[in-house]
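Batch manifest line 177
LIGAND: inosinic acid
JOB: complex structure
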Amino acid sequence: MQNNTQDKIEVLIPEEDIIKRVQEIGEQITKDYAGKKIKLICVLRGGTIFFAELAKRIDLPIEFDFISVSSYGDGTESSGNIKVKTDLSDSVEGWDVVVVEDIVDSGNTVNKLLALLKERGASSVALASLLDKPSRRKVNVPIDYIGFEVPDVFIVGYGLDYAQKYRNLPFVGKVLL
Ligand code: IMP
Ligand code: MG
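JOB STATUS: finished
ARTIFACT:
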């Protein structure tokens, strides 16, 4: 695929495989929360494409909300702390919440985010992550819905960026750094 830069990107997971898996996760969430309404929380910006594809495949009453937390800058290492950069629009109190993330790497980001949502009174907090990179885990976070496990390589596409580029690639790829 043309990307107008020098970076070489190799396809790891093609779009059709992602869509198939997202369909399965949507069906699973639909079953798990039968009879309930849920709040689907997109973790900006990486979670956006997975969030949109997943939301379409959940057959339940849903509300959307969005949060932006800082972790990486433009580099590839996670800082131990997260900061809420753009907060949710509404309260999560009393809601069954499903957080939608792009990837769980060290686990720092989601670990703190899930704790924050519980602290704010969500009835339940589950995590759906398109990708899981377990080899880099520093904090043990249970992931309720995982799309794919990936090796310890730098991933781009399908929402994930490298210095803010490549989020729009329609596949999960690996940057040859
Ligand atoms: P954490 O290390 O689990 O806290 O990951 C924090 C965030 O870093 C993730 O939500 C992603 O947005 C980003 N991230 C982690 N690994 C990658 C990667 O391989 N490519 C692009 N972004 C990543
Ligand atoms: Mg993220």
